[in-house]
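Run folding on both entries below.
>entry_1
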Amino acid sequence: MVQLNWTIIIIAALVPTVTGMIWYNPKVFGTAWMNLTGLTEEQLQKGSMGKKIALSLIFSLMISLAMNPIVIHQMGVFSTLAGEPGIFDATTGSINQSSEAGALLTSFMETYGDRFRTFKHGAFHGTLFTIFLILPIMAINNTFEGKPFKLTLIHAGYWALTLALMGGLICQFR
């Protein structure tokens, strides 16, 4: 059975904060980002920094959880069979080997459970997710908000790096 590795999920949830501190540093893309958005250091300091960080960490945890089925293919098989009657033993909660679906899932995981479970594969899916979902969403928003495409590229680059690292971590460690 594919189980969530909560240690890695929490570590992966810290990745957006770490990459953000580097990516949006004035020596990297921070100055360009501030110029393109019209933000100043004073404006960025307004509001509760604790609240901003807490919300960022909560949202990052949500992203980390969402990355699991994106980078771990075996979760799709598990979710397909999870609703089958009798797949789980009612008393233990473990897979019921005597059910057809339970036996099928166990056999599948024994044969294919470690397939495509590498950092490289997870990073690949994190990057694809950015290119085919994050980039278009941001581009649409920024287009209608009249923001320059360069700003979209700065943000998309950040998310490509961040989701590649998150996907790699989640996929690599079982």
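>entry_2
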Amino acid sequence: MSEANLDRVREDLAVMKQAIGFRLPFEREHVWVSLALAAVGIVVAVLTAFTSIATLPVTQGSVAHLTYIVSLIVPVLLVFSGMAAVAHRRKAFAPLLWRESRKSAVVAAVAAPLYITFLVWVVWNGVSPSALTAATLFLTGLFSLMGALSEPSRRYVLGWAISTMLIGACSPLGTYANAGIMVGGWLLLGGLSTAGIMCWQLRDGSGRDAHRL
């Protein structure tokens, strides 16, 4: 049997255990990913608060403006790239992480161009990009919250759900100068709370225990 077939069998077994309630829908490695995102949040917030990167007089599209945007996005992309590398290296021991990383890459490849196209279209027709961003974040958090509350084994989603709802609600108060602090706070709160909930679920026992709640 080839390595690819073995990987598929491991993933199928993990999914079946999850479906019947004997396994939680995440791996221990997910805890480290959440903590890494929290660390990125601290770096982004500190960089914004204690450097001049967000206070320099800039014009849209200038080098300083693009540098600021890159400083908010690239660290998060690096964490997810690192997660994909770890998932591939440990796919025999954490099949759900490897399965999730592949699915996330496909979803991102499809969703990102569609959302950017939609954003350009609505802004072209007079909708405020900040209002659209706030609504998108709040609704994303709200739907995640509903999913977490409806399925006890997915309670770990509560951390990111509440954090995303909060940043969506606070987005109207955001400015160019404090955007990094808001993004950093979102990553810090979401990462730490999610890691904490995951640790609690792992310590609490198997997915079977969560399934009975």
